[in-house]
Amino acid sequence: MDFKQIKNKNYYIYDNIDEFNINHPESPVRHNWRHGDEGEWVFTDDGYVCEILKKMDISTKEGKEVVCVRTLCGTFICSDMKREMLGEDGIAENIYTFSGNKKFAEDYKNRERNPRELLFARYVASGMGAVRAYKLAFPDSNSGTYIKQRTDSLLKTEKIQKMVKQEIREILNSEGVTPEWIIERYKTIADLSERDTDKLRSLESLAKIAGLFDTDEKKSEQVTIWAGFSPEQLEEVKKHGKPEIIAHAEKNTKEKNS
After folding, report:
1. Whole-number average pLDDT of the chain
2. Using CA of residue 81, residue 86, residue 89, residue 92, what is the dihedral sign?
3. What pTM value is reported for the model?
4. Which element (helix H / strand E) includes 178?
5. How many CB atoms lie within 10 A of CB 72?
């Protein structure tokens, strides 16, 4: 999966239909891009999936009207059967012309966030098993042993853990689950709960987040809120690091010597 930002909005091209369906499970894909309409998702001639950003009529040098479509792969004349739309060529440097090159794709690969690694992190953040996420993000990998080793290695890297954290934040933010919302829920329970035990737990959590439990011996206290994860996913996280799931607060405290 690659993307290009146009007027502060990201537009994507997907490597295959499985990758597309993860992100757009209810969107249809037209098989022949030459018949696609503006805003539709279409297959390229080599099986990638992209969106028709614009469909328009233009006049040729001979004065003939032809129908064209603009995609991340470039602009194409629908009636020109000699030219294929190939997702393998990457995102065109200039999508507004009939000639494109791989410069944008090459520049993208040199960025800090590899697009396939980002896709892997996005799948993991959505709750997918790590091995399946790797197979979808890196479809050319066939060896089960290699995939397992590579998956374990990626999940241990700080870069991938940061990507997963960021993707989880975006997912939760889209649902309105922000750190502020979580703290407000703690406060509501402390204010309204009828059971003292519930009130105490909420107050203790708020106190830890606020850093009120300072003691003499230095130690690290962490408050992490886990939600929406299966036992298998939690076990996967335990094996491969400590990513934040919803909200995370850390402080240094000291514990008095007795």
Report:
1. 75
2. positive
3. 0.41
4. none
5. 24
Q: 253, 221 in Cβ contact below 8 A?
A: yes
> Using an 8 Å Cβ cutoff, are 62 and 71 in contact?
no
List the beta bridge partners of residue 143: none
Q: Which of 165, 155, 162, 189 is nearest to 246 (CA)?
A: 165
Confidence check: pLDDT of 104 > 70: no
- What is the distance between the alpha carbons of residues 245 and 230, in angstroms, rounded to a whole number? 12
d(CA 60, CA 98): 12
Radius of gyration for the chain, computed over Cα atoms and rounded to the nearest angstrom: 25
Whole-angstrom Cα distance, residue 212 to residue 65? 73
Span of 126-130, 143-147, 207-211, 217-221 with lowest mean pLDDT = 217-221
> What letter would DSSP give residue 5?
E
- Can you tell me whether residue 239 is helix, strand or coil? helix
Three state DSSP letters for 25-90: CCCCEECCHHHCCCCCEEECCCCCEEECCEEEEEECCCCCEEEEEEECCEEEECCCCCCCCCHHHC
Q: Which one, of 108, 132, 112, lies nearest residue 122 by Cα?
A: 132
What are 207's strand-pairing partners?
none
Handedness of CA 207, 197, 199, 244 (dihedral sign): positive
Q: How far is CA 22 from CA 110, 133, 171, 219, in A?
A: 25, 10, 14, 42
Q: Are 116 and 137 in contact (CB under 8 A)?
A: yes
